Amino acid sequence: MYRLVLIDLIALAVIAVLLSFAGLVAPTALEIVVSFAVLAAVISAADATAQRMLHLPWRIESSLVTALILLFVLQPSVRPDGILGLAVAGLLAAVSKYLIAWRGRHVLNPAAFGAAVVTIAGGLGADALGTFSSWWVGTPAMALPVAVLGLAVLWRTEKVRIVLVFLVIAVGVALVRQAVQAQGAGLPFAAADALGFALTQSPFLFLGAFMLSEPLTMPPRRWQQFSVAALVGVLAGWPIPVAGLFTLGQERALLIGNLLAFSFALRGSVRLVLEQRRFVTPTAQELTFRTRSRLRFVAGQYLELDVPHRHPDVRGTRREFSIVSAPADLPTLRIAYKEGDRKHPSSYKRALASAQPGAVLAVTGTWGDFVLPRGDAPILMVAAGIGVTPFVSQLRQLRATGVQRDVVLVYVASEAAELAFRDELEKTGARTVVFTRDEPKDLPGHWTWAQGARLDAAVLERVVPDLAARHAFISGPPRLIADLAPALQKARSLTTDAFAGY
């Protein structure tokens, strides 16, 4: 994701430089280039120093992303005082990643923090800092590039709906504000013009796509993310003045949203001690950890595991894993993963494979809405291969708490030997339909083999005739989800957990 966001922001910067030659953006090409060079140098140096002191791998993508966001938020300059202000904002942004953090996670968006401090300082009379939050990216010529490139980021992070809520609220509140101000001044209010201004000449698009959507400052549950988006939308749409010196708009609105997200989550790094690794199928391993401190999660959620190692590839040192164990199993925590490409494994997979019992790793957060609904409505679980892991957690938790649910598990694997956690699933008593090429041996009475049939939408409706009455959950590769979509859309509700390996 760092690489995708970085590429998009670089593309925006190049577009801005080209537009500057035609006078379609406020800064000149020289101001844009010099400002970025200052921000990139300061932030990269600060990040490299901090990460060296903390024995962390240096992530140049993170430094450049922060620099580029600040480039579009702050007023570019080639004047000495402007360059000083940019340098101070960049330094504050970089330092905030490590000082304003909770157990290794950001509390505040770094770029928003650096821009807010410099802008507020300027309002309080710090004349030496010759820059401020201008959000010059909010101009008609930049609106389409921001929207297109921003959508690519939001689609990849599955935050389209979150940012749409923010945009609708921010634009709606901005229109109300302009109407009220026009009425108070005795002026006519042109709704169409005001709407066009809010969409093309405000920073809402950039703020939502590249800042509000940042995963490191998002709360873990979807309803919490909508709440943060709504709050930021209200404050950004109607900036509230504070003592006549500055307003609670734009990046200050985002910082307040960050605090709400932090109050929801209070998530942070929890140290894990590796106790055991074992093969649960010929191609999948399970890792068992002991947690050193309290970890909270809901059955079906996933965690982010940080495995620091030398020379990480472009995807960094963190990956997401569904949790196999149930909350009732804590302090024991289990995850599983498929080995995948053994000839060309990622740097992360090599590091994880080399971790031995006694190694200390860190969970940097738990997320997700792949959780069972309340009540006693019947459930359909569809799993492919190692995608069964969240269902193991859910079924274990139901069994541990004595909750009875009508559950049907449809389990797809390439062959019977690839049915992971079979013993645990059998003990839960859930009715299970197995789709494998070969027939599994010694199936219990509540398990059924699909006679080697291939699972598609028609077959799913046949083996689960009461599909329309069930809440459906599917965990597997995007292709399987697409194949089953015609049937799954008939379910009472549908929750997906797509994955594409790592």
Please explain how this structure is put together.
With 502 residues, this protein is of the alpha/beta class. The protein contains 16 helices and 16 strands. The chain has a six-stranded antiparallel sheet with strand order 8-7-10-5-6-9, with no helix packed on it. Strands 14-13-12-11-15-16 form a six-stranded parallel sheet, with helices on both faces. Strand 5 (270-281) and strand 6 (284-291) form a beta hairpin.
- Please tell me the overall pLDDT: 89
Ranges where pLDDT stays below 50 over 5 or more residues in a row are none
Strand order of the largest sheet: 8-7-10-5-6-9
Characterize the main sheet.
6 strands, antiparallel
Q: Helix amount, in percent?
A: 40-55%
- Could you state the oligomeric state of the chains shown? single chain
How far apart lie the N and C ends? 13 Å
Q: What class do helices, strands and sheet pairing give? A: alpha/beta
User: From the alpha-carbon coordinates, what is the Rg to the nearest angstrom?
Assistant: 25 Å
Number of strands: 16
The rough form would be described as: globular
In DSSP terms, counting alpha (H) and pi (I) runs of 4 or more, how many helices?
A: 16
Q: What percentage of the residues does DSSP assign to strands (E)?
A: 15-25%
